[in-house]
């Protein structure tokens, strides 16, 4: 302490040093600093601590919420991917089912068309046979009438009797058919010979 007092005494005797404060200023400054530090510790620092604590909690809570949201987003993404995969599998199954049904419908339609074509062909054959029979009957009648008239003129007697007319017509047609059959057989026999 003697050095401090010595410095203070020397300082009072000499010119004031701008670097060294006066003792009264040093005491008043120290008391003011202590009062300011006490006031700050009592009123301001707790507010700062509370604000910093709230901010830290908000940041850490935000980070926790972000982690939670990220995990939920990952879970949701996994669910969506799973649902998308299921939807793709379902779509593929539906396409395959539709393809199979389409093939079955095509086969069914072909079978129906084939049976309809066969039915129409059979009807056409029956119609042709009916027309052929009708034409043959009509031709027989006309040929019979002409043959009767012609035979009556050749023989010189009338063949107006129905029974006689039928016998003559039947005999005439039988002879025509036998000639037609023998002509077809001889033509068939001659064609292999001509080829050889």
Order of helices and strands: HHH
Number of strand elements? 0
Helical content stands at over 70%
Shape: rod-shaped
Average pLDDT rating: 81
Rg, Cα atoms, Å: 66 Å
Distance between the termini: 160 Å
The computed structural class is mainly alpha
Beta-strand proportion = under 5%
Spans of 5+ residues with little confidence (pLDDT < 50)?
none
Largest sheet: none
Topology:
Elements: H1 2-13, H2 23-155, H3 162-195
Helix pairs in contact: 2-3
Task: Explain this structure.
- The protein is mainly α and 196 residues long.
- It has three helices and no strands.
- Helices cover 91% and strands 0% of the residues.
- The longest helix is centred in the middle third of the chain and has 133 residues, at 23-155.
């Amino acid at each position: 302490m003697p050095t401090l007092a010595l410095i203070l005494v020397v300082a009072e005797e000499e010119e004031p040093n701008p670097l060294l404060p006066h003792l009264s200023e040093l005491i008043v400054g120290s008391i003011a600093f202590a009062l300011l530090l006490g006031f700050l510790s009592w009123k301001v620092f707790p507010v700062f601590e509370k604000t910093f604590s709230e901010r830290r909690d908000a940041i850490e809570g935000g980070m926790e919420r972000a982690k939670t949201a990220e995990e939920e987003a990952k879970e949701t993404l996994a669910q969506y991917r799973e649902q998308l995969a299921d939807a793709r599998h379902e779509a593929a199954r539906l396409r395959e089912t539709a393809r199979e049904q389409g093939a079955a419908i095509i086969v069914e339609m072909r079978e129906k068309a084939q049976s309809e074509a066969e039915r129409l062909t059979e009807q056409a054959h029956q119609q042709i046979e009916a027309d052929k029979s009708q034409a043959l009957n009509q031709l027989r009648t006309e040929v019979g009438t002409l043959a009767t008239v012609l035979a009556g003129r050749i023989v010189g007697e009338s063949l107006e009797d129905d029974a006689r007319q039928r016998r003559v017509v039947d005999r005439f047609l039988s002879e025509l058919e036998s000639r037609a059959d023998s002509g077809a057989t001889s033509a068939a026999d001659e064609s292999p010979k001509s080829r050889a």
